[in-house]
Specification:
2 copies of one chain form a homodimer. In chain A, 36% of the residues lie in helices and 19% in strands. A 7-stranded parallel β-sheet of chain A has the order 3-2-1-4-5-8-12, sandwiched between helices. The longest helix of chain A is centred in the first third of the chain and has 25 residues. At the A-B interface, helix 6, strand 6, strand 7 and helix 7 of A face helix 6, strand 6, strand 7 and helix 7 of B.
Chain lengths: 394, 394
């Protein structure tokens, strides 16, 4: 299969590209490196050092004998998108290429507008390019479980059958996203569903949970193939951040009560899920949604698991929740569609936690303790960050 | 009350501004005149001649003795939005200032992206300006009944109580919009609801049906106070277009079977609804939705009503539906909230139809028959228009 991986230089895009390449697919990587610019803007860096994309691609060829095509450019540039799609002629496109941090989108007005325009316009350009070049291209788009928010009923996979006043219909699941970033993904979902309906495109929206871990079967083939690992208050996700906090003897900072419950998955399962979606494409005109996570945990549970797994002493600290979210809520979300396609999950246990803690420990000298605390407040319209310029870099 | 009317030079914005002014409110009008530029781009014009905003405002002062403040600028310019909100210090803002044509948004990629960015960013800038300047400002935002699409269950006003697997929650009504324009309104709704939740803003989303008519109590006080009247294939809405077709002996062009059913309302009821929303503001932190229409009709019913009301001979013609929509469907939508606030609707009957036909007849020499046919096809990604430049003017 010929597969384009958009955002293929990122945390998940890079290991996905390697995984698909090793599995025998012809892979093209598209990126504009804006994720690396966010690091400069925020004054933070990946805990694990990462090579430039060109170096990584060369190294992958040396290690595996396999080639990756690369295309450098921005999805908000429609001409670039057209060129890439018509030159590479993909069978499928995996789309990771969006600004993916909720706190980044909540810094201030400019970052909110940047996030929504960047994500929504990039995806619209892609939809038009697919429709114009080859509507049979299967779009596998990364969404987020955060699109659903925390309703007081079970979350289903994209759609819910509603019986109301004696009539029944299967309708898009109501969305209650919790940041301008999460909102951008909801906008994308609506736009993609519409494009499938009017142009007969085929799309899979992967509503992904919070990913943890950093090592995959391919990235561990050589240290230079490592993917990034973020622990900072803006781009670091919860479990990875807790592991870093544990190894540098920083209290594990639980936002509020810690009853916030989220779907989670191992980075290796992200790769498996994307491949399963690719191997079982959506039908012509079909917009389908898979909830891509394997287990649910509350934030406090995660902190306790890390504390248990770490051999040293670990303190758990409750800090004021910078977000506007329920700190205690019902959470039960369906996630059977990927299991039905054959996903065999890596569940979160002591051995996985020890692996992540080992990654953190190996690079503990690179940890900037000042980068860990949350700096972006949901309740104000503008958060002052130590290093931010006040203007998004993208 | 101090009220800003955004898009106050438009079809509904202008008569709303006059109505609120005459009812004793201090009114400021904001516009960037892009609606008039669309006319140039499309090579069409309002059937009823309209004056420049500055002339209209001067005339209103002569006729009524009342002043309207004017602010000329673009909502996508955040500095402009901040300046207007801080200078005028409104109690409420009525927001009509969006690209509001579904066909315009479906011309091609550039017009789709323009529509979404223009509408979404303008509204985001407004939300930030309100939150930063004065969160108690009541935002009255024009949405559309088209946000809901045509589900097979009853449409409620913004929210629906769902009982699912033994649990119950009141959730945002699922949205199935039918164009990139309608999608932009769905995106707005999600963004506004979020801003109410995190910043305690108060907002009313008026999901308006298709408006018909052109004359209001204030615009008829002087011919120079007339508002625009569109009959062309891109900006003309269905009933107004049928009336023009009748008077110029053009067949009434029904798209497809004509079973498409939509909520409709008289232009005078738009003004009344907006005022009712203003006089009964949303609570702090409340995002509420009113379905703003008074009756539902199928397109074919409307054509038949116009044919009955017009004294001359009228032919009804079924043309291929340029849109992707159900031509026959269930449609039952709640619209009690504005009635509960005291709305007394002007229902659609022969006398209203005769009034609209009279407006059309008075300006029949200005009708361009070539502008009437639908030119924008939903099923293709780019429609070739006779006069369009291929680049949105906004």
């Amino acid at each position: 299969m010929r597969i384009l991986v958009l955002g293929g230089d990122g945390y998940l895009g890079w290991p996905t590209a390697l995984h698909l390449s090793r599995r025998g697919h012809d892979v093209g990587v598209v990126d504009n490196f804006v994720r690396r610019q966010y690091d400069h803007e925020m004054g933070v860096d990946s805990l694990v050092p990462i090579l430039q994309l060109s170096q990584r691609v060369r190294l992958w060829n040396e290690v595996s004998g396999l080639d990756l095509d690369t295309y450098v450019g921005d999805l908000t540039d429609a001409d670039f998108v057209d060129t890439v799609v018509s030159r590479f002629e993909p069978d499928a496109i995996v789309h990771f290429a969006e600004q993916r941090s909720a706190p980044y989108s909540m810094i201030d007005r400019k970052h909110a507008v940047y996030t929504q325009v960047n994500n929504v316009v990039g995806t619209m350009n892609l939809l038009y390019a697919i429709a114009e070049h080859d509507p049979s291209i299967h779009l596998v788009k990364l969404g987020t479980m955060g699109e659903y928010g925390t309703p007081n009923i079970d979350i289903e996979e994209g759609f819910i059958e509603i019986t109301h006043k004696g009539r029944t219909d299967l309708l898009p699941y109501p969305k209650q996203p919790g940041s301008f970033y999460h909102l951008s993904k909801v906008h994308d979902s609506h736009n993609i569903q519409f494009a499938c309906r009017i142009w007969g495109l085929r799309a899979t929206d992967l509503n992904q949970g919070v990913v943890y871990g950093q090592q995959t079967d391919e990235t561990t083939m050589h240290p230079g193939l490592a993917t990034r690992f973020d622990y900072d208050g803006v781009f670091g996700t919860v479990l990875n951040r807790f592991c870093v906090q544990a190894v540098v003897d920083h209290p594990l900072s639980v936002y509020g009560k810690g009853g916030q419950t989220r779907g989670m998955l191992d980075i290796r399962d992200t790769l498996a899920c994307v491949e399963l979606a690719l191997l079982h494409p959506a039908e012509e005109g079909e917009f389908r949604v898979f909830n891509q996570f394997t287990e649910s945990f509350s934030v406090l549970q995660l902190a306790e698991m890390v504390a248990d797994a770490y051999p040293g002493k670990v303190r758990i600290e409750h800090v004021e929740d910078p977000r506007v979210e329920k700190e205690d809520h019902y959470y039960r979300a369906a996630h059977t569609k990927l299991l039905d396609l054959g996903l065999v999950p890596h569940l979160l246990g002591p051995s996985t936690l020890r692996d992540i803690l080992a990654v953190a420990d190996a690079h503990r000298d690179r940890v900037d303790p000042l980068a860990i605390a949350p700096t972006v407040q949901w309740r104000t319209t503008a958060s002052t960050l130590p290093t931010a310029s006040g203007r998004p870099v993208g």
